[in-house]
Amino acid sequence: MIEVCAGLLDKDDPEACIKREAEEEAGFVVHNPRKVFEPYMSPGSVTEKLFFFVAEYDREHRISAGGGDEKEGEDIEVLEIPLEQAVGMIGRGEILDGKTIMLLQYAKFARLME
Asked: For position 23, what pLDDT does the model report?
């Protein structure tokens, strides 16, 4: 499954959580995280609200190879895919995770608005 960094809040602040998850899962320290939306994914059946962020990073901010937290059973391969390629992967059924699709569509739309 190809998906963006994500994690449970565990009573943490959403911004602190995304910073922690980016470090654990992708091995990057992110800067200037910005919340872009906070939807309910299926309000008719689930009351969980998700917090979607975008953030800046560059190669100098890599602190580890990523891969997740082994104690939590995570075995993550870090991928960096150009936006246009990733958007194409949605149409080919290679990216199926809803939150990842939403963020990629947001990124594509934001780029068009520049």
From this structure: 93
Torsion of CA 6, 65, 96, 113, to 10 degrees: 80
Q: How far apart are CA 46 and CA 41, in angstroms?
A: 7
Q: How far apart are CA 81 and CA 8, in angstroms?
A: 24
Handedness of CA 41, 88, 66, 106 (dihedral sign): negative
Listed in sequence order, the residues at least 6 apart from 109 whose beta carbon sits closer than 8 Å to its beta carbon are none
Could you read off the pLDDT of 29-71 as tens digits, one per residue? Answer: 999 999 999 999 888 898 889 999 999 999 898 999 889 888 8
Question: What is the spatial distance between Cα 114 and Cα 110, in angstroms, rounded to a whole number?
Answer: 7
Which are the contacts of 20, defined by CB distance < 8 A and separation ≥ 6?
A: 7, 12
Instruction: Tell me how far apart the alpha carbons of residues 1 and 25 are, in angstroms, rounded to a whole number.
Output: 14
H helix or E strand, kind and range, residue 105: helix 98-113
